[in-house]
Each structure stands twice: as structure tokens, then as C-alpha cells.
Amino acid sequence: MTDSSTSKHDALAWVAGSDAPEKSALNLGFMALTDSASLIVAATQGFAQPYGLSLNLQRQTSWAGLRDRLLSGELDAAQTLYGQVYGIHLGIGGPATEMAILMGLNQNGQAINLSEPLKRVGVTTAEALAARVRQGGAKLTFAQTFPTGTHAMWLYYWLAAQGIHPLEDVNTVVVPPSQMVTHLRAGRIDGFCAGGPWGALAVDEEQGFTLATSQMIWADHPEKVLGVTREFVEQYPNTARALTMAVLEASRFIDESEENRRSTAQLISSSEYVDAPLSAIQPRFLGQYEDGLGHAWLDAHPLRFFAGGEVNMPWLSDGIWFMTQFRRWGLLRDDPDYLAVARDVHQLELYRQAAEAVGVEVPEQPMRRSTLLDGSVWDGSDPAAYANSFAIHARSDQTAIAL
Questions:
Q1: Residues whose CB is less than 8 angstroms from the CB of residue 197 and which lie 6 or more positions away in sequence, other chains included
Q2: Cβ proximity of 106 and 228 under 8 Å
Q3: Which residues pair with 229 in a beta bridge?
Q4: Are 344 and 126 contacting, i.e. CB atoms less than 8 angstroms apart?
Q5: How many C-beta neighbours within 10 Å does residue 10 have?
Q6: Cα separation of 80 and 66, whole Å?
Q7: Dihedral through CA 320, CA 324, CA 329, CA 334, nearest 10?
Q8: I want to staple 236 with a disulfide (CB 3.0 to 4.6 A). Which of 22, 151, 165, 288 is the partner?
């Protein structure tokens, strides 16, 4: 891989005087996931030093552990699940702590996998799965990675779109992403939703198959973000901006060429980072999919880290969407002030400063419009009505597990 950023601006201007980072050595948390790539590249390939930063990568074993270390200050910043940040901020499952999102880290690239035993009995389509659930008997058990995280929301949304109530018709459990294949092999779960490379590894090891990708649910959906506490932003605003600039540059580098993506896949596959075979990382990193059912395709909406900055913009509508799903599944008992909460969490002005400094275009409007797999249109304009619009939702006495 190349060493140093490709930015045309004078990085030294952000290292000296009043713009100097207040804290130069940062502990940066990440999970063993393909979409941690931009943080790993920023820390190891010379993208942080021009901004006066030294990034100490610290791999975490679970999202709950990452949350605890971020809140205790052991981690300064971290790769976080979009919904996880909002769950902490809103006090779902624990004391509320004001949080901040500096930027988006990636879009797409997650997967819903089912087990080999289900494959053997012909449960290889959404329709067959729905029929299996309707038959009754022992409930199937699906794993996701964190109660308020993206994977829980993708799993619930997808199941509900097939007419399967995720809180009534199946059991759901929390499993760290790197343990999904082990749990599948042991027969503890019948399927899971997680990020790469674990869906591909299940296919490679013939322990399951990919029934749906997250981009089938929502093309170019929000996924991981660069998360910090509000206290960190207030105490170290220059550091937060410099970190955002470094990760933006790394994100742009990864998406610049196939060569860069290949070299990044090689880098992150090592034992200190994702610790998984390159064969389970690189194909889906490049958008090349095999589902374990004999189908192969080049995905139109692959895992991406930059896309001209579209990935990295902290869209208010993205954050609001997760709150609508918390409301849908009983994690929120009342409608919050959706827009006000999103404006509190998303550091739009700081992101604008960082993006403009490194030559990344910033959209004029902080909302975007998308159509999801069930035909529902999301644009952030009326979140309370949207949250209340779904036929399948939690009953008043029902709540998705929050830890």
C-alpha cells in the first residue's frame, strides 16, 4: 500500500497554532470486521500523521465491550454501529450518555445467513422460511450483534417484510460477529445477520448460505459510523476534526481504485485486524458475491467507504431512521423529537469543516431519500408517521431486548 495521503491542501495548517489537536495520541476501537478498513488504513498508512495524530488501534471482542470502553474513556473514538450510538444517547438499556457521530464509515456489505441444516430441508428462499415459521413447532433462533445495532434492525426489518414477526415468531439472541460461524456450526443458531467477512466465511466453510444482503433491504444504507462521546468533541474539537479528516482521506484512498481495495483487503485480513482468510474478505470487498446456493453475481451496491463523500456525510435522515425502528419495536415507548435528537448527535458543522479542508463535497441538504425492499419510502420528513406505518410492530407490552 502507499504511504501518505493524496490531499492537495497544506495539512500543516491544521497542526499548528489554534487548530492544533488538543490530544495527539488516540486510542481507536474497532471490531474484527471488513468495514473497519478505513480506520485501519488511516492508522497504519500515513493518513493521520499530517494532522498531528497518532492512532493506536485496539481490537474489541464485542459491541458491548466496545461501548463500555468508549464510555469509560479507555477508547477515545471507535467504529460504532449507527443504531448503537443512538441507543446509548437515548438511554436504551442503560444510563443515557450524550454521544456524537463524526462521520459515516461505510454503506452496504452486511448479510443474513441461514444454516446448512435449513438448506438441507429446502429452506433456501424467503418464502420457504416463512412457510417453515408458519408450520409451528420449535422456534428458529437468529443471532444479531447488538440489541440497538444495525444488524438487529436489518434482521427485524427483513423478517417483517416476509410476514415473520421478529419478536413473536422466532427467537433472537446477541452474538459477537466473529463468533457467528462457530455458533452456526454448533447448531446454537439457525441463522444470523452480521457484517463481513462472517457471512462469506460461513459459505466458504459450508456452514450456511447467504439468503439476503443488507443492500437488498436498503440500497446504500447507513452502517458503521465514527463515534465519540459528546464530552470528547467538546473537550477536543480540533482533535475530532483532525481525526475526521484523516479517516476521510483513508476512505477516499480505499475507493479510488480496485488496486487500493485489493491491497486494503490484504492488509485487514492479517491476524492483528480482522484475522480471517483473504478468500472470505476480498471477493465481497470487491462486490463479488457467491451465496452458497450456486448463485454468483457482481453486486450493484457493494460495500463502499467513500463514493465522493456520500458514504461519509452524517445524514440526519439516516440517524432518524434508526429511531423510527426503535419506536417500531418497542425500544422507545414514545416518539422523541426525532430531528432535534439527530441534530444533537450528528456533528454536521465539524464534518463540513473537515470535508471542505480535504476537498470532499458536502451536500447542501442533510436529508436523503430512499426506497426500501417493502416499497416504503424514507426521506426523514415525518418520522412519527413512518414509525407507525408498519403492519408488523411491537405490541404495547412487547420490547425488543435491550442490554
A1: 33, 34, 274, 276, 277, 280, 281, 284
A2: no
A3: 99
A4: no
A5: 10
A6: 8
A7: 100
A8: 22
Q: What is the pLDDT of residues 18-53, one digit of tens each?
A: 889 999 999 999 999 999 999 999 999 999 999 999
Q: pLDDT of 226-262, one tens digit each?
A: 999 999 999 999 999 999 999 999 999 999 999 999 9
Domains of the chain, CATH where assigned? 11-107+222-286+302-378 (3.40.190.10), 110-220 (3.40.190.10)
- Provide the 8-state DSSP code for 166: T
Neighbours of 237 (CB within 10 A): 16
CA angle 320, 313, 57 (to 5 degrees): 100
Alpha-carbon gap, residue 362 to 356, rounded angstroms: 7
Residue 117 corresponds to which amino acid? P
Task: Give SS3 for 25.
Answer: strand
182-187-114-81 Cα dihedral, nearest 10 degrees: -50
111 three-state secondary structure: strand
- List of E strands, 70-218: 77-81, 99-104, 110-115, 141-144, 171-174, 191-195, 208-213
Phi and psi at residue 304, in whole multiples of 5°? -140, 155
